[in-house]
Amino acid sequence: MSVQTFKIEGGVSSLVDAAAQRLPPAPKTIEETGLDSTFLVELAAKVMFLRGQSSLADLCHELRLPASVLESLLAFMRGERLVEVVRRGAAEGDVHYQLTDTGRNRAAGFLERRGYAGAAPVSLQAYCDMVEAQSVADVHVTSEEVHKAFADQVLSRRLLDQVGAAMNSGRAMFLYGPAGSGKTYLAERLRRLLHGDIVLPYAINVGSEVIQVFDPIVHEPVAEPAAAEGSFERSVVSDLRWIRCRRPVVLSGGELRLSMLDLDFDEATGYYQAPPHVKANNGIYVVDDLGRQQVAVRDLLNRWIVPLDRRIDYLSLRTGHKFKVPFDVVVVFSTNLEPSDLVDEAFLRRIGHKIRFAPMAEADYRAVFCNVCAEYGIPFSEPMFARLLRDYHAANGKPLLACYPRDLLSQVRDFALYEGVAPTLTAEALDRAWHNYFIEE
After folding, report:
1. Where exactly are the structural domains of the chain?
2. Which one of 6, 14, 272, 327 is least enclosed by Cβ atoms within 10 Å?
3. CA angle 213, 134, 14 (to 5 degrees)
4. Up-side HSE of residue 99: CA atoms within 13 Å toward CB?
5. Domain 130-137+175-350 falls in which CATH fold?
6. pTM value?
7. Interhelix angle for 404-419 vs 427-437, to 10°?
8. Interval 204-241: pLDDT, tens
9. Backbone angles phi, psi at 377, to 5 degrees
């Protein structure tokens, strides 16, 4: 089993500059793509097989490669009698190519072996260098920035200060407390503390295999200047195999299995999907509802020991080829269970910050209740709120959790919509909402 490593050398400084310019510089030659010419011939043939007759401009757009690279590649393919020119238009990019019979036969075989036919990938080395150059560990926040970012939320100063310090550490954090106390809500909004955008590739190439990294479900693209979508421009200066996005926040919940943390090879398409923590590189990875997964917590957490300690992870292709990738994420573990019941002391030492979410103070609970009333168009009533605290929360021993105002007031609104009346806080409405929401004991 071979092991491929990466090094962070002098190229990082140039990549830092490139990241500041949104995208790395475009390759001018086949060699500068970092990809083997045989791999590029295969990829171009597959794209042309699926598209049919294609102009040079079309191929530039599909493969995200500049004309200078594709012209050299197509010239080679013409020499091998894989493609032919079928028409030349007046415009520079209006040269149309199609596969020959030999080219179509070869392309069909390529597609059977590897179905990926899209943006040309970048090399593993280029990906690793870029992740290092825009590391989330370099993102630091101040107390003023944290409190401003969450000014529209009702969160205690103690909690915000703990979260801010944890973000600056670059280490994992453990959020624990009762269900409904706001752990997941806060974790999903930690993006507010991530400064700047990142550059990530559509895909990376490892051992002639393609691993898709960009995921439109978790990555939010940031608009580039005009023509970034790949129109034919001989003066293109940016490498369009990369896309500029906001720093990601990726969440896995109770569905998480150990196999999901490895490369996912799709037999139907013939290429790999990157695991969620790789898609989260340069951002945050939230493991929600720890202890509810379909795998033993000990096995799941043992999987994280090396990445958390060394900030690298090992992935394997189906051939057995093993290689390193950066593990540049702030990992957030969130659980409703007691941490000491889930993990041992040795693992807890690897967690930089343990943050407890407690029931809310009455003043904070009232503020949340008022905010939800305003959102739902329900007039706030001080006597009814006092009744809620006294006759329902206190009488039933229910703590003041952040989720309750929205859950209870949505019941008030739902019944009002059903009855065709304006939602109002009354003793009857509160009683019906409470008993409809909580299971009778």
Report:
1. 36-120, 130-137+175-350, 362-437
2. 14
3. 105
4. 21
5. Rossmann fold (3.40.50)
6. 0.83
7. 110
8. 999 889 999 999 999 999 976 554 444 455 556 899 99
9. 70, 35
- CA separation, residue 383 to residues 361, 366, 379 (Å): 18, 12, 12
DSSP 238: B
Contacts of 115 (CB under 8 A, 6+ apart): 46, 268, 269, 270, 271
For 342-393, how does the pLDDT look when each residue is reduced to its tens digit (9 = 90+)? 877 777 777 878 999 999 999 999 999 999 999 999 999 999 999 999 999 9
> Across the strands, what pairs with 323?
4, 315
Q: Which two tokens stand for residue 121?
A: 């990938």
* Region 241-250 average pLDDT: 94
Contact of 354 with 173, CB cutoff 8 Å: yes
Q: How confident is the model at residue 92, as a pLDDT?
A: 64
Task: Provide the 10 A C-beta neighbour count for residue 362.
Answer: 12
The sign of the torsion formed by the CA atoms of 224, 225, 226, 228 equals: negative
Which top CATH class is 36-120? mainly alpha
| E strand residue ranges, 155-248 | 173-176, 197-201, 203-206, 209-212, 242-246
